[in-house]
Amino acid sequence: MSVYDFTVKDKKGNDVSLSEYKGKVLLIVNTATKCGLTPQYDALEALYEKYHDQGFEILDFPCNQFLAQAPGTVEEIDSFCTLRFNTKFPRFGKIKVNDKDADPLYVYLKEQKPGRIEWNFAKFLINKEGNVVERVASKTKPETMAESIEKLLAK
Questions:
Q1: How many domains does the chain have?
Q2: Is the Cα dihedral 70, 75, 80, 85 positive or negative?
Q3: Tens-place pLDDT, residues 11-46
Q4: Which residues contact 97 (CB under 8 A, 6 or more apart)?
Q5: pLDDT at position 98
Q6: Which residues are annotated as catalytic?
Q7: The domain containing residue 50 runs over which residues?
Q8: What's the whole-model pTM score?
């Protein structure tokens, strides 16, 4: 099993098979727009711009599970991120990452790198084969992942 076995909802509610991302290095992030960590969008976008042409994708999953810090519709969240942070990476439908209503993708991610998602902006790095290779804490700045991303892209 790998992340490619999962189907998620895009920002318009359509099914998207993560198999569409086969052969790419992925960074999967649960995000929020009203969080002290929201400025991480700048660093995420910088990583995306630097490595996208080499086969890197960021998959953004808004999550309102932590103190309701991702309020509004997915369209409002997308507009905010696009206008405020000029993000270009794919954004998906809102999900839950913990407890009984956790999205199956996040159940799988936490099985691969155990532990409860502690907050917004938890990051999972996925290799080209769809395997979870690294889990990075919410407060860890995205730019610290550049070396790991480069190593995976080089393989």
A1: 1
A2: positive
A3: 999 999 999 999 999 999 999 999 999 999 999 999
A4: 30, 61, 63, 65, 103, 106, 117, 122
A5: 97
A6: 35
A7: 3-154
A8: 0.96
